[in-house]
Model the fold of this input.
Amino acid sequence: MPIKIPDGLPAGELLAQENIFVMPQHRAATQDIRPLRIAIMNLMPTKQATETQLLRLLANTPLQVEVTLLHTDTYQSQNTSQDYLDSFYRTFDEVKHEHFDGLVITGAPVENLDFTDVHYWDELVRLMDWADSNVFSTLYICWAAQAGLYHFYGVEKHPLGRKMFGIFPHVVLDRSHKLVRGFDEQFMAPHSRHTTIYVSDAAKIRDLDILATSQEAGLYLAASHDGRRVFVTGHSEYDAKTLELEYRRDLAAGKPIQIPKNYYPNDDDTLQPVITWRAHGALLFANWLNYFVYQETPYDINSITGQHGV
Done:
């Protein structure tokens, strides 16, 4: 089934070239069907690259999905033009009276800051609290996962001695959980971050199910018992060249950066990267959309109510 996106969004042409079925708004308006309403709060500076990565995964299911792209109102993006944002994005204040089946909150390059020092922290807190009563399930990615765990449960992030950078093996801890249905016993996923969440800290939270971890990368996947908050500390959405672009960028800037682990054959950065996480990323998003959004969200989207006593 197609994914419904704003008319003219550049990601649509890129996805169509990959034979992914995308549907512009004018065509979707002629169909008598209620698609899943999914909002994406895109906190990344490379907004077009990130939206394309996420749309690719959201489109990889039999479900029809209508996407609303969001950007922060309290912080002006330095890498995306205002014209682009005005054309394809909305702000939280513009949608706060609406309901969504699902919400994705991306990572952001602000992890070395204290949460409260992030320019848009107050706006993000309002979004996360709003999601508890206006969104059926929210997927928090990388820094957003750390932010959500801190805001809702008081779990702190901790600085790393060096950047967690590369593709790491993970194991599933609870094979009965629907979010990891079909996962291999060991699967690969990208990480790119300077801070971490201790598994031992997350395990103290009674409302959290710890679903997948890595011996080297630590906590990877956790969810609230009701599945309405899902936390992913890595980047299963990454493209083949995302880590390479980050690596080359940091090298050119003279930053201390190691070769991304388990990425280039024999750690030789003159060779093409080996893609080992694509199937996992597709399955993770498909499971979230199917079992925690489509199978659970009410047909009358306006009847979505609060969770966790909110």
About this structure: Residues 27-32 have pLDDT under 50 and may be disordered. The two ends are 34 Å apart (CA to CA). The first strand starts at residue 3 and ends at 5. Residues 146 and 213 are 15 Å apart (CA to CA).
